[in-house]
């Protein structure tokens, strides 16, 4: 028998993470005087470009990728309008070569950066959109990808291989995030609720269980809905690519 051919996959890459990780790894602190008082950060852009090329080539080889789409975030999104403290705790300084490396990646591969939405949302939309050829694999180490029904590959955990995130598991993860919040993104969820408590609350994985938990803490559905909308990764029905309008998630209309 001949060797089994790999599928011709489209890779949806979280390029925010890829570029940041390689750019920051290239930074090196250099001392210029014997008194150790003059320091600068040095980074080799040429070397960083080579590392990106190597990583993309490796991903294509391992995953059978014939098409790569790099997904980037703009500076501000609809979540900042909903919740001004969204990601406010993050440092403004990017790695020294981040802007230059980002622009180079955009020039080398098909890249998507849409107004008002994050790279996560672009991936969520393209993963379910007929505009991108299937089969598709999401490539990201962001735990938010667990809330997207997709085939998922985490580069920092190659031992897990490509995993299927089902609709049921994605929905449950979204409701879990609504309860626990996300310290990385700066939204609190329901105070005092961590992953284990969230699992106990979501006996049936229903929105009503989330609302009930909020009400028991003296809060209401409006406050639960804000956290859910911050946690929700957009799908094609929730974003108009022509007008750039976001439709906010509604538990009674959207799964």
Order of helices and strands: EHEEHEHHEHEEEHHHHEE
In terms of per-residue confidence, which ranges show pLDDT below 50 for 5 or more consecutive residues? 1-5
Task: Estimate nothing, just give the exact number of structural domains.
Answer: 1
Q: In the CATH scheme, what's the topology name?
A: Rossmann fold
Which CATH-level-2 architecture?
3-Layer(aba) Sandwich
Q: In which order are the strands of the major sheet placed? A: 5-4-1-6-7-8
List the helices and strands and how they pair.
Elements: E1 9-14, H1 15-25, E2 28-31, E3 39-42, H2 45-63, E4 65-71, H3 78-82, H4 98-108, E5 110-112, H5 119-127, E6 136-139, E7 150-153, E8 162-165, H6 167-180, H7 195-201, H8 207-216, H9 221-231, E9 239-240, E10 245-246
Parallel strand pairs: 1-4, 1-6, 4-5, 6-7
Antiparallel strand pairs: 2-3, 7-8, 9-10
Helix pairs in contact: 1-2, 1-4, 2-4, 6-9
How would you describe what is shown here?
The chain has a single domain (9-33, 41-246), classed as Rossmann fold, CATH 3.40.50. It is 38% helix and 16% strand. The protein contains nine helices and ten strands. The strands form three sheets. It has a six-stranded mixed β-sheet, sandwiched between helices. Strand 9 (239-240) and strand 10 (245-246) form a beta hairpin. Helix 1 packs across helix 2 (45-63), helix 1 crosses helix 4 and helix 2 (45-63) packs across helix 4. The N and C termini lie far apart (44 Å). Mean pLDDT is 95; it is low at 1-5.
